């Protein structure tokens, strides 16, 4: 304890012997750590948006459907349990949020044009916040309930079909007998989405209206549920699996969209790579500072060795000095990062590169995401790698022969 | 048991293509509680002998013993521990740690030894007063004169009450009054605590002060005189 105290005291005072050098090094570490955390927050924000957008395009965190539905999403591949029974089971299981839907391919036709779309029969009360549609950002109105006879389409699709709120469109699909099922719907609302492709691809109608159109009675094609965190879907998955027999398959979101699942893993890896690369650049400065500090103190180190300080204590003193430098630099970097990210949390407009971002599945506004584990990762990487970087100069200092060091002439 | 025993010790340095015999088959025994002065012209080997006795430099051949421990075969760690526990050093120059105050420099060895803070403070206060540095405890080396720095170094060497004190030109930067005071302090410690002193010096007044004077030349002992101290 006494020894640690003396080592700490020596390390701290030696750190401030050359204010300018220490200041420059602290600035370098601070900016480096800021860059690590800021870049990580931007990356995580982008990945988070992409995944949330991906999840909001309907799979939720966990999705259940007929075993053949993914290969052939036609109306014959229904969940073989009635929707009313599913409601009872889901309510009893206590999910954070859940919904059942009919989702089939269809064609929407206006008097001007026709487009292939994905038709969704939903209960709007259950879907609020679950899909990408913001209920309060609708031209006209959103669906009012599962029995609503109107239809809500995307703004882009409305442009394409040259239709608008109040006009009628015809929706055409197939019923279980492979007969054409079609019906006219009045467009009651137009939705916007972060990506134009969503506005073209999806149309929403009341679940009961679609069940009647497709003659499927009280049945649906999929059931979806979400938990608290898309990174931890196992509790939701386990609960969902318990609700069904073998005639329904339950999949996690990253199994349904392997691109997004892989993206999450790859980006987590990239974050680590960023951090390590930035640290490697920093480590040259750190090692140089320590080498210079040791070189300037050769006689002093020799004196301490001569007085009976063990080489291991000299090693410890230099490492403590390096750790103190890094800890102060980390503190500066963390404060800078938090101070610069917090004001940007409301979003950074990157519409200038929106087209490219949309191709990657990201939106034109980027929301930096400052996660505790990313801050911890940056700090731990800097401290652990900093420890190893300081070993060489520290080892060199501890190997001096006391009398040679004391008598060294500058 | 002797405090120090050197048996047939040799140490040769190479400078360019020249071989310099700093210690040439030198043997010496210093009894516990002895007070010995090593004297030689520059390059005569007294500092090399002092360094060998202190475990700071390894001889090429021969044996060096401190009490019952042979130190020329010890590891770095063992030597560091021996120096910390048993030996006090006063070097010719560059004696103090620049980032520590006078008091902290004096307490440094005791702190590394793990002594309690209260005891460290009591001893350092008493000794700084004894070497005439009361009131300068909080000054750093750069804020003190050469003589004051040397006195701090002397205080540090003896404050932990080592059994052996090795001093290389301890009075080199001191005026005659301080120098006399320092030698009186050494004598007092020698008398009261039976601390063994080995001092390498050119200073005639120091030589006159000690009971045993060893004269060296070219790495050999040429004279070993028991004398009545002044």
Short description:
Chain A is α+β, with helices and mostly antiparallel strands and 410 residues long.
For CATH, the homologous superfamily of chain B is named as: P-loop containing nucleotide triphosphate hydrolases
Measured as a percent range, the helix fraction of chain A is: 40-55%
Structural domain tally of chain B? 1
Which whole number gives the mean pLDDT of chain A? 87
* Radius of gyration of chain B from CA coordinates: 17 Å
- Broad structural category of chain B: alpha/beta
Shape of chain B: globular
Compute the CA-based radius of gyration of chain A: 31 Å
Give me the number of helical elements of chain A.
Answer: 15
Q: How would you spell out the order of helices and strands of chain B?
A: EEEHEEHEHHHEHEHEE
User: What order do the SSEs of chain A take from the amino end to the carboxyl end, as H and E?
Assistant: HHEHEEHEEHEEHEHEHEHHHHEHEHH
Q: End-to-end distance of chain A, in Å?
A: 35 Å
* Helix fraction of chain B by DSSP (H/I, runs of at least 4): 25-40%
Count of individual beta strands of chain B: 10
How many strands, what sense, and barrel or not for the largest sheet of chain A? Answer: 6 strands, mixed, barrel
Model regions low in confidence, pLDDT < 50 over at least 5 residues of chain A: none
Strands of chain A, total number? 12
The major sheet of chain B is characterized as: 6 strands, mixed
Q: Which CATH class of chain B is shown?
A: Alpha Beta
CATH topology category name of chain B: Rossmann fold
Overall form of chain A: elongated
